[in-house]
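For concreteness, we quote verbatim a single protein encoded this way:
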Amino acid sequence: MSRTAKIAAAGALGGLLMALTIGITLREGRHVETVIVPADESAADPQTRDLRRCRTLTMPDSGCEAAWEEKRRRFYGKEDRP
């Protein structure tokens, strides 16, 4: 195989790989996720507001501990934890 044929084959292979990469990239861009966020923070119930505030805290807070305990109680459906 001559030097010119090798260069042409390498160029063709490189072009094919580039075309495949571009095609895959453009096809992946079609998947769009929609995130729904409440427009008004005051529309949420008080427990949700407390839990959002508690997520940002780094120090222990008795109000946050009570809010998380209430959330656990509602989630698990138990009146008292053993």
